[in-house]
């Protein structure tokens, strides 16, 4: 036994340096990685349940020469995020190890798509430094963010003033625009996936995770449903093709939640939440909170349109409208300068991605947005929605019986990963 200093509270705790399991600090409950560990547990969490051990992986010398894992930062539905030091650069990083042991072809795809993702640079996007496979489990190394998640802020301090919510959402829209143009749809935007850097800048995390782990070919293909029920757009619930506007819907629900202090649709079951997204108009923001500018109320409502055509046509268009709706109260993130900001806000995009791979929403000539002329959802959609709902709920039930760690094959039908994979709670995390 030797004393190891708790990375979080700084107290010395006795740890067998070669221990194979994570060690809990008795003072602050941080889960520490023993200094000499060559094998560690990976945890996973279902919905709001407590983390449980899902599997254990070997840490080869090669990995340990590059990274020193320190403690668990968080546990999601797909795996464990560690705080680590990248030894060659002497910098803090976050290492996210997924519990899925993938078949070789899926791992190849993960590495290929991940490289494209890692080449994206944007001040409001978490920077991916590295990705590889560890004992059969894919892992990603990203910039370490110590400002916590938007989910935690919503829980601890409740609702935001519209101007502050607007600033955060404008930053997210800037990152979304860059990623959409590079061909990625996030598909799992939720307050847990919006984090803050030390300078308070919002950063989107887990971009492309849903994509690189799910769709073999076409990023916009229909037939695979991934997301978190509270924030899922109708087309996503139905297993239809997703595009940039699917993310705009999710961000619209997040903007609603930040201003109102509650998401637009909540219910005790995933099924009910899906039904609300598909058929129910969101509650009026102005009835829930006083003093929200009319233009903002209208824009949030439009971002939550059931039909993608009725939403803002792109992240850029959403951003422009949001800036106008907020008036002069919000500083434009494109011109804002944070401490330590090199001053370059332009998106650096990999050369190979000059052509957008995700189609933008169609726009009529001379129109700022296609919303005004878009048709109302018809009976066709309602019928499709019902069928899709049945399929999605069936898939949910199916998944409740599937061990996520062993589910490496691709499903041909809709793949729903509701919170906790079990489909019983409508609020918990989804993959990534
Ligand atoms: N880059 C990062 N820097 C610091 N903490 C992170 C980072 N990425 C993720 N985390 C933490 O790890 C937790 C788990 O992340 P994740 O596995 O993506 O699940 P979820 O998004 O459902 O919370 C996050 O909630 C966050 O607290
Ligand atoms: Mg996440």
How would you characterize this protein structure?
Helices cover 31% and strands 16% of the residues. It is globular and about 65 Å long. A five-stranded antiparallel sheet has the order 7-8-9-11-10. The protein has a two-stranded antiparallel sheet with strand order 1-2. A two-stranded antiparallel sheet has the order 3-4. Strand 5 and strand 6 (52-58) form a beta hairpin. Helix 4 runs antiparallel to helix 7 and helix 8 (270-279) packs antiparallel against helix 12. The model is unreliable at 215-225 and 335-432 (pLDDT under 50). It is an alpha+beta fold and 432 residues long. It has a domain at 150-335: Transferase(Phosphotransferase), domain 1 (Orthogonal Bundle), CATH 1.10.510. Bound molecules: adenosine-5'-diphosphate (ADP) and magnesium ion.
Produce a short descriptive summary.
The chain is of the alpha+beta class and 432 residues long. The protein has helices at residues 61-66, 104-118, 150-157, 162-181, 209-212, 234-237, 244-260, 270-279, 285-288, 294-303, 315-326, 379-400, and strands spanning 2-5, 12-15, 23-24, 31-32, 39-44, 52-58, 67-75, 79-86, 91-98, 128-134, 137-143, 194-196, 202-204. It has a domain at 150-335: Transferase(Phosphotransferase) domain 1 (Transferase(Phosphotransferase), domain 1, Orthogonal Bundle).
């Amino acid at each position: 036994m030797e004393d190891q200093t708790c990375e979080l509270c700084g107290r010395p705790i006795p740890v067998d340096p070669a221990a194979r399991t994570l060690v809990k600090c008795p003072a602050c409950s941080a889960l520490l990685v023993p200094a000499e560990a060559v094998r560690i547990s990976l945890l996973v969490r279902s919905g709001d349940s407590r983390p449980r051990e899902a599997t254990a992986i070997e840490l080869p010398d090669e990995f340990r020469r590059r990274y020193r894992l320190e403690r668990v930062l968080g546990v999601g539905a797909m795996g464990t995020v560690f705080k680590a030091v990248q030894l060659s650069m002497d910098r803090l990083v976050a290492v996210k190890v997924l519990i899925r042991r993938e078949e070789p072809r899926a791992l190849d795809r993960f590495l290929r798509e991940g490289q494209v993702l890692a080449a994206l640079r944007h001040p409001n996007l978490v920077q991916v430094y590295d990705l590889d496979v560890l004992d059969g489990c894919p892992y990603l190394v990203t910039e370490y963010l110590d400002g916590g998640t938007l989910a935690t802020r919503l829980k601890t301090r409740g609702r935001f003033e519209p101007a502050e919510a607007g600033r955060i959402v404008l930053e997210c829209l800037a990152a979304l625009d860059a990623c959409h143009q590079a061909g990625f749809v996030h598909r799992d935007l939720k307050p847990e996936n919006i984090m803050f850097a030390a300078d308070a800048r919002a950063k989107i995390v887990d971009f492309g995770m849903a994509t690189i782990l799910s769709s073999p070919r076409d990023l916009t293909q229909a037939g695979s449903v991934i997301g978190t029920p509270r924030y899922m757009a109708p087309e996503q619930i139905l297993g239809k093709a997703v595009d940039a506007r699917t993310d705009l819907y999710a961000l619209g629900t997040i903007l609603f939640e930040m201003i109102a202090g509650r998401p637009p649709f909540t219910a005790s079951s995933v099924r009910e939440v899906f039904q609300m997204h598909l058929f129910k108009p969101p509650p009026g923001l102005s009835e829930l909170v006083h003093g929200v500018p009319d233009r903002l109320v209208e824009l949030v409502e439009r971002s939550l349109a059931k039909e993608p055509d009725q939403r803002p046509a792109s992240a850029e268009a959403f951003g422009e409208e949001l800036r106008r709706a907020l008036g002069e109260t919000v500083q434009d993130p494109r011109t804002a300068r944070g401490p330590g900001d090199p001053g370059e806000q332009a998106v650096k995009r990999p050369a190979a991605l000059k052509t957008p791979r995700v189609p933008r929403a169609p726009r009529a000539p001379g129109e700022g947005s296609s919303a005004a002329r878009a048709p109302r959802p018809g009976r066709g959609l309602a019928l499709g929605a019902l069928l899709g709902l049945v399929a999605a709920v069936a898939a949910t039930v199916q998944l409740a019986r599937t061990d996520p760690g062993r589910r490496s094959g691709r499903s041909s039908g809709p793949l729903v990963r509701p919170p906790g994979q079990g489909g019983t709670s409508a609020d918990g995390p989804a993959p990534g």
